[in-house]
Specification:
The structure is a homotetramer of 383-residue chains. Chain A has twelve helices and 14 strands. The first copy, chain A, has 383 residues and is of the alpha/beta class. Chain A has two domains: 5-131, 3-Layer(aba) Sandwich (Rossmann fold); 143-315 and 362-382, Dihydrodipicolinate Reductase, domain 2 (2-Layer Sandwich). In chain A, a hairpin with a 4-residue loop joins β8 and β9. In chain A, α1 crosses α11 and α4 packs parallel to α5 (116-129). The longest helix of chain A is centred in the C-terminal third of the chain and has 21 residues, at 323-343. The mean pLDDT of chain A is 97. Chains in contact: A-B, A-C, A-D, B-C, B-D, C-D. The A-D interface holds A 157, 161-162, 164, 166, 168, 170, 173-174, 222, 224, 226, 228, 237, 239, 241, 243, 249-251, 253, 255, 257-261, 268, 270-275, 288-291, 295, 376-380 and D 157-158, 161-162, 164, 166, 168, 170, 173-174, 222, 224, 226, 228, 237, 239, 241, 243, 249-251, 253, 255, 257-261, 268, 270-275, 288-291, 295, 376-380. β13 (295-298) of chain A pairs antiparallel with β13 (295-298) of chain C.
Chain lengths: 383, 383, 383, 383
């Protein structure tokens, strides 16, 4: 008989942002239950966070190591099924590795790790253990993004020629890391984030979205990477020329100093027959443009869409779904796959689409190459 | 010690729409747990629905009467705290009344009841029992709607002169009730919906939104109510002139035959000093217009907003929240008030704003008067 | 041999607004030449205005009477072909009548006259003389408006059910007529404007647009007409329920106290098969909505459009045309018809579409009835 | 006494596009009169075009050489004051040079010439003769563009950090030059256009707009220039990284194979304190974004704007002006400067802003460098 999938969380204690996003995303569809957590490196903070979340005290742990060990010792009908890792980048690898080695599936925030070596090791470990690993490149969870990918796969736009993907934010226009602002502090600290700032935090989302929608890999790039805010340690802006495997060209620009911008991840793709455009801040609209027919505005439930787009919607036309629902689609799809695994079945194909450890490796490769390009006088760097 | 609030659901079995909306809304913030349900008048369907929702078999009931009786008999640490009523209109009153009489709080979908008598009786019962009653006029759950109300209350727009509220949908442009389409069937059936079709289903949302945002009551109305689809039994379109208590004038139009429209609840309010505009389909934007300053686009987390607007947001700027989050705000606020009640405390004021039984009575009054006006040759009907 | 058509202008001296609009509209396409004018009731002001316009002194007159008399005495190759009347409403009838009686064609601003009697007399005179009379209901000059009409005429939307036309402005939110603001003074003065303020100035545009696009006549209306600004003499706001000859219903609201609004003439039309939407402030976009196909965004030169839409565009796709070009379309079409008349030919059908004296009579009828309804307790007033 | 300025046109005969744009732009404000033309290299076509334009036969010439010679021989009160050159790129230099050498002012379409040598020669000739030379980089004629420049000059946005300028079109997605389509043929022909296709035709507009608005010069660029349509001779797409003199970074991309795009010239500029955004296809809106105040939407006549923005508007708020009016602003400003010259006066400063021969030289330099970069393996090319 089907049962809820049990989640243990690493990170996401009081004051965190992405932890609560993961919890909401996991809760929305009712297939996942938060059963335990190691919410903070500070055991008292972890304990208080567990109270906030109505967890029994004996399922709130002082470290992820403790959580994995103790949960493993619990009986099957009780212990967690997977861990959700929602810590800063430098604390992804440790819990992910230990979870995999102890038989737990993993959901991990992006970027997958602190550096490429860790990413490759996790990829190998996933392969070896056969466990499920979801990476929350959440923007591919939007149904209209899935429909865009489906249209391009179908050849509706013809051969793809040009891709423009952009991700401007403005929230790091001033030196927020000096204002005791937790989100800013770890993102601008090379010891916690790795070699990249904005390019790791949001540039990877742009890269992932472009490759996901088009099904094309970036083969070469040429980057101009900048730190605009004086004293900042990691990049806060980047402009990148892209070349894709099929000969398509593109532009990627991402920024956290684009003053006044919110979270404006946008993509435009042009093929021989037509183009499409999607904006994360108005995610339920996909605009499709044609050479000699009127522009079309595709919307959930208003016309035939891709099966896996429809499978990732919850409400009727004109009832906007948003960021949390897109995030929830990853969790829901992951949960369906875990359930199928528990039942010894193949998962329903409409639920198998979520980013995996390989997307994580790809993202780390992008980070390495875009930073290398930014420091190089060579025009094109191969990916 | 704080604990999750326990919900029992009436209605919302397989094939329903609004039931899953309520469940998601209740689940998002993690303060509410679905513990039991009477999901369908068909006991087998109720049982299967309970299985879908991972409920134990002994908490899935064949009728709301059974549920209320058996839950009441359970110990305090186990039994439900409130019922959520998500049935068609004619099955609101029965479970609401019985729940209140047996000491359970109530969340009820709108309109509150089948007719005015039932509404008034429920209002009296709430007053008598002192129990909490939330009505899911969900559109007032949007944070930018709360900010709009706050601005007007502050006098930012000056004395209000004109209000235009509209709610066009197109999904009943054809006779969907003949297509075995459950949502269409009960909404167009006077035995299940009451005297009004579109005016009850969505006209009341428009009325509620206008009165909520402006803080002004409609005092007179003049309506032209139509059935456009041949053979339909209830109105599918209505155009209404409005007069408000302070001398403001307005227009309300709502329709389910506005072909090609999704769920376009929109409102514009104009005062002596400025105006504002909000669109449900792009709910995170509130446009404010001034006589001689530039138009402003207010967005979550991008500038100072009303305290209760901020208290009803979950994610950073540019991460769109939508319909389900607005709906969840009602559940979250209701849950906070139940928790405070359990703890013997006053609730935090930022959580006390949710529609109540009085909004339900007001909505039934609107339905009565707008239908009366539609049938009358008298120009103005008093509310 | 073809020659430019010669225009004489009545009104439009220094400080006027609509006079320069007419001159630009007449000049854009190069078929019309301004040859003379009586620009002001003040002869010195008329003279100075003529100088501004590079006119020879002997073609600048102190009154329209003088202009018509003296121009009539000039030889055919020199004298004006038509007069353009750009004065306040109470000075439309006089020059129009005299021009027609003396063999000159007429272009007249709207509303056509001060009252219905004048309008009917002008209509009879046009009929009697066979001269050409264009009324500058300029909003029907937009190409996408013409395409909308064409689609509805073709039956693309099916039988029309609902029409929402609105015209909010905010520029009279304060008592501008006390600020020596010429545009406000005459528009709010019953001696110059007639019985209606906003309903005459912009309500007639809304009425004209709705009837033009749908091809349907309003048969009944029910109006709530208001003066919001204390001390103002004429209406500054109106909300109107509409019924159309085919059974369609509608709403018209127009306002000059909608604080912060610019010139937001908008229309939505819904039929059995689909709907359309057009906004004057973004006039090159026509949105078409369908029951079960994606929404379409029609744009000039991007897909097949109606012949007379295409004939009223000047530039390639994405080069926005605006208000002045739409106004110019009326002048251009009128000029083409005058040229054809001079050549003894039938005009090309793509140029015959411009508002005429009959639209003017219709507009005066609307003004009479909407004001009558505003003052009446009777629900429906027949048109 | 003031008189109209007299224009002679080179090019723009039947079937041309930009010729009629120039004629309309010159006509709109009534300060310029078309008095003569050499409309085509084919004398018969020139003659017929002159007839279309109501010109006397003796002022229609078979070549620009003939026009300049014969007009020079006419008396001052009759002969043209300036020539407007609206031919393909390779026929700009000849007439411009001859006009300047014979004492005529010049308005020339962009890019200024076929190559850099010609541009520099024209610049020297303008300097030597002291004659006026306007280059129709028309997009800087939009009033909201002028206001954007003024805000940045005022320091409203603080030090500029990032600039994103883009110009996607889709009309050359297929090989239109094989379809006997005149506009496509010359633009894709190196013998008529020079070394650049899209980068010359529209890339220069993007470059000009970015430098105009920000007041910053591009110092280095890195380009990826492509021909996507097989068999095409000149670039139809380009992506360019930019560096500016003050340390700002940027991206410029322009394309004529962005399928389904119209004429989407857009710019975003970000400074330390705020950002702004402007879209050519909705030119009357300038969006300004701030770090911690609401986004503002600036519109003509709705709030205080720069003096030279206001001086380049013709109609009240909400009456959209478009492409032709922006183009007309260049002609009007040029005409005002010629008039002042004729009167021996300094022109009014609000009319002195139009692109000149130096903008033309700058544009040719951009073309040279962007094409050089496209062919180079060197990352940065200095400008």
């Amino acid at each position: 008989m089907k049962r809820k999938i049990r989640m243990g969380m690493v990170g996401g204690g009081r004051g965190a942002f992405i932890g609560s996003v993961h919890r909401i995303a996991a809760a929305i569809d009712g297939h996942i239950e938060l059963v335990c957590g190691a919410f903070s490196a500070d055991p008292e903070k972890s304990r208080l966070s567990g109270e906030d979340l109505y967890l029994p005290a004996d399922r709130v742990y002082g470290s992820y190591q403790e959580m994995i060990e103790k949960e493993k010792a619990l009986p099957e009908g009780v212990r967690m099924d997977f861990i959700a890792i929602v810590t800063p980048n430098h604390v992804h690898y440790g819990p992910a590795k230990m979870a995999l080695e102890n038989g737990f599936h993993v959901v991990c925030d992006k970027p997958i790790s602190f550096n490429m070596e860790e990413a490759l090791e996790l990829e190998a470990l996933v392969k070896k253990t056969g466990l499920l690993f979801a990476l929350t490149h959440n923007y591919t969870g939007y149904p209209m993004v899935k429909h865009a990918r489906w249209m391009i796969k179908n050849g509706d736009l013809g051969k793809i020629r040009k891709i423009v993907v952009e991700y401007p934010q403005g929230w790091l226009s001033t030196k927020e890391e000096d204002n005791n602002y937790k989100q800013a502090i770890w993102r601008t600290d090379p010891k916690q984030s790795g070699i990249a700032g904005a390019m790791g935090d949001i540039g990877t989302h742009a890269e992932n979205l472009a490759e996901y929608i088009t099904g094309l890999k970036i083969t070469e790039l040429c980057a101009d990477i900048s730190i605009f805010v004086p004293g900042r340690q990691l990049d806060d802006d980047g402009n990148v020329l892209l070349r894709f495997e099929n000969g398509a060209k593109g532009v990627l620009h991402a920024s956290q100093i684009s003053a006044g911008e919110e979270n404006a991840l946008n993509i435009r793709v042009y093929g021989e027959k037509g183009g499409l455009e999607w904006h994360q801040m108005e995610p339920n609209t996909l605009t499709v443009k044609w050479l000699d027919q009127p522009k079309q505005v595709l919307r959930p439930k208003m016309s035939p869409l891709a099966p896996d787009a429809n499978a990732n919607m919850r409400v009727p036309a004109g009832h906007p779904e948003g960021y949390l629902e897109a995030f929830a689609n990853i969790y829901r799809n992951f949960a369906m796959c875990v359930q199928a695994r528990l039942a010894g079945l193949e998962p329903d194909p409409v639920y198998t689409d979520y980013p995996t450890v390989s997307d994580g490796v790809r993202g780390m490769h992008f980070i390495d190459k875009v930073i290398e390009s930014g420091q190089s006088d060579q025009k094109w760097i191969k990916m």
